[in-house]
Amino acid sequence: MGWVAKQLLGNWKRTRITGGAFLCCVCLFLATPKIPRSPKHHLFADMRNLLGGLFSISLRGEFWGWALYYAGMAGVAFGSAYYHLKPDDSRVMWDTLPMMLAYSSLFSSLLIERLGQRIGMSSLFALLLAAFLCMAYERSYDDIRLCMIFQLIPSIAIPSVAFLFRPKYSHSRYWLWSSGIYLLAKFEAAADRKIYRANSYLISGHSLGHLCLAVNPILLSIMLFYRDIKAQRIGDLKEEP
Question: How far apart are CA 108 and CA 102, in angstroms?
Fold first, then answer.
């Protein structure tokens, strides 16, 4: 009976956290005015042309989460290059959507590790669907609020889950470093022109943001390569095929 009560209490806590996070997002969306994508979004500070079995993964759900993350980051490389050849509203989704899909998969991989495969896989499908719906909303109504909120989720949700729930693997601090780099990249992109002027027009904030995002897959690959299983949870054993 004690074990059942503990499980019910844990599920209730997770439900409250999830519900609270959802309500915060809804309130933020309702409290802010419509934000159309500005034409200045495509006018970057630096417009010059530039020429020139290894990982520790123990669950099938983790494999799919990480595979989709790396596929999403590869999509970012090609989509961003396509967008920056001619920045405009019709191409920007190829720069934004792969990033949203990649970090949806990354967050789901963390949930699989910390909370179990069933919760993580359910979140993966829900977040992938939400990413497409956010992009469809932006394209239909010229309002980027949902996409902005969605892109802020990883920098808040990943460190929160990493702090609140016990890690299954070693080297869990890499999750926090990854979130910090992602947040730094968003700040650099927002301060594009200010950073460009501050360093005497050597490199723009947007370019620095891309460099930071490029570091993240390397950092997370190092984590996967060196980490070891610390503990096997009963729930994980039940979920394994």
Answer: 10
